[in-house]
Predict the 3D structure of the following.
Amino acid sequence: MNGSLLDDFELPLTAALRDGLRLTSIAAPVLALDAVHRLWQSRAVVLWHPPAGLRAVGAGVAATVRVDGAARFARARGLSRRAWPSDTSGHEAHAPPPRLWGGFAFAPGAAALAPWTAFGDGSFVLPRLTYWLDGPRAWLQAVGPAADDTLARELAAALAQLVQLAATAADAEDAADEPYRAPPGTQAPLDAAAWHRQVEDILRAIGDARVRKVVAASCAELSFGQALSVAGVLDNLHSETGPVWRFAMSRQGSTFLGASPEMLVRRRGDVVQSEALAGTLAKALGSGTDLLASAKDLREHAFVRDGIVQALAPLCGALDAPRAPMLRELSRLYHLATPIEGRLARPLHVLELCELLHPTPATCGTPRADALRMIVGAEARPRGWYAGPVGWFDAAGDGEFIVALRCGLLAGRHAYVHAGAGIVEGSQADKELAETQLKQGVLLRALGLVHG
């Protein structure tokens, strides 16, 4: 067996490769997703709560894949072939197939330093236990080495816990009585002068025709008197209304979580979907009509739409991408959005599509290579997984990845909250900084630090 291949897997998968993985799925009671996450929080590895459709919580580790370097997308695709269960004799026919959950850093090396080292350039987990929720139906799934005689007992014990939880749940949403508030803490002061220098450098590059757009990001660094509650923050993120993906990915005691409004790519069979999301206005500063009439925001949005279309059009026999954007309304923001859908002319794994699309002009800029160089060279704190692709894929190559926005990393008593703004001709540093702070407010509100 290829030793270099096994080096990229954690020990649970190494053992499983020898014995083969077994999959068992059974019907389970319908519960609030967050209640299951709290039940399993000491070993939870994923929560996935899209605006509609299948939702999941995963706990424990049956297999992991970790990749680094420029070839991370291709390497993750190749290594994943060893991660899927070979024994599915106990799998209920209507239950979802297993998925690898995880994501990628914004750029290779962006997660090389603390606090991101547990996440790396790319990492995925196949949970040992997964609770699936699809409207009025739910399943419990277990994956482990075929020779592991503890798996059946673990599955039975987990089902008993879920049944007990269903019997004692106060209501279907399992809402907390009081919103979570983080313990007392401090926030590192923002270097506003550095932000202005960065924006001015970008505007000079735009004026010299070296780039047309660059996304600048800032990071709020917070320290608290005691460890933060992942479950509490996830509960509070329910207040973010509109079509958002609530997610949490945990690695070695740290959790990357958020409520992102932006899908990067979805593949189901030969159908591929993406969307351009760029152009932002706070509801407190104007109306949706104002945003739709903003020349600066329409120009920024067009860069993103055109970049996605140029990447997908050669791969598709047909591609639908409306010329005029629609309005996306969230709790406190308006965005310009363009849905994009096509039919693939040849089979492509969702990770291949991720690699083609990431980073889009919405989170990087255009031309992409030049904008990326400016970002990596200028930002004081590497982005880690902020603005990277986060999501899932299965053995068939189907999957869904979002852009990790409105998010933060919780690491014990510390939190790191990134946000960005697209700098184009006509941008003003103070207004763009205010936009990043407005976006950071999603996580700061979830921590109980910002109100209103």
